[in-house]
Structure formats: C-alpha cells, structure tokens
Amino acid sequence: MFERLMPKLRVNTVFDIALEELYARGYRGIITDLDNTLVGAKAPLATPELILWFKKVKELGFKLIIVSNNNMNRVSRFAVPLNIEYVHQARKPKSTPFLKAMKQMGLTPEQTIVVGDQMLTDIFGGNRLGLYTVLVLPISVKDEGIGTRINRRVERIALTRLRKQGLWHEEDKFK
Q1: Closest residue by Cα to residue 121 from 28, 31, 46, 43
Q2: Which of 63, 35, 61, 31 is nearest to 131 (CA)?
Q3: In this predicted model, what pLDDT tens digit does every residue of 75-110 receive, in sequence order?
Q4: pLDDT digits (tens, 9 = 90+) for 123-139
C-alpha cells in the first residue's frame, strides 16, 4: 500500500527538475500542484523566477496545467494572468482531475509528469494512473490548512514504514 506513495523522483523545488532529460524520454506534459509546490499557500502570484521556469517549460515543448484542490478564486487568480490552464477543486487523489488534465493536454499517462508536494494527493493520485511522479519539498508549511496538516502526519507514518521496508533511502533524499 505505502509503495503507491513513492515518487519516481524527489527534488527540492520545481527548478531542480531536469526538464530536458524528461522531454528526451518522451514526456510532453506537466500536471503541477499549486500551493506549496509552485508558490507558498498564501502567495497570490508567481515569482519572477517561477515565471521564467514556466517560459522554459513551454519553450522546451511541454504542455502545462495546474491541478489544485483549492477553490476557483485562488487558482484562477494565479493561473489566468500567466495563461495557464487549470483544474480547481480537484479532490486529489481522485483520478478524475488527472484524467481531465491529460485530456485537456491531449496526452497519455506515458507522456505525463505530475509534480507536487504531497504524497497522499499528488503522488498517490499520479501513481494510480501510471504517471511519472515528482515530489518537491513544500515551500512553506506554516500557512497550510487543517487537511494538509493531517496529510503531513499520515505522510510521516508512511515514511517510517517505507524506511523500514527499505524503500525510502535517505541517501536518495531530495537532490
């Protein structure tokens, strides 16, 4: 069960993802979480560095879509000025928002990457569909809602089990 929470890749931030390498391997789309993956949970807009990352993603030929459990107001205020498609109130880890995002991008699971900061929503949801999952460290945990704080506690339990099973190695820790 806990194996389904294992990401294919662990990095510190989205900026550490080897986009060129993943594109060369046939990936063409990125489904990304918003809060604590791209910006802090309370940050209304993208940072200049993140805007440059979005530009690089698109220049390389990737399609990009934000899939967030947050409400339409929060997600649209962030995504619309950047001309990025989005799925709000996604209810991850349900399969529906991931399938919807892939359909909007016109891609298959074999061509799609999921990037997020939560094992129970982003990684589990992506793994269930056979997507390439990337776990990033959360940008800031101080402004997280109650649901996310509960998820983080469950993640700590899962990590303990994964370590005991020899599946989570600290030397593979975020690069």
Answers
A1: 31
A2: 31
A3: 999 999 999 999 999 999 999 999 999 999 999 999
A4: 999 999 999 999 999 98
The rounded distance, in Å, linking the Cα atoms of 121 and 4 is: 11
In 3D space, the residue among 105, 137, 107, 131 whose CA is nearest the CA of residue 119 turns out to be 137
- Residues 77, 141: Cα–Cα separation, whole Å: 21
What backbone torsions phi and psi does residue 65 show, to the nearest 5 degrees?
-145, 140
Query: Nearest 5°: CA angle at 174, between 12 and 26?
Result: 80
Q: Which two tokens stand for residue 168?
A: 């989570």
Q: Judge contact between 6 and 128, C-beta under 8 A.
A: no
Amino acid (one-letter) located at 4? R
Query: What does the alpha-carbon distance between residue 52 and residue 83 come to, in Å, rounded to a whole number?
Result: 14
Global pTM value: 0.87
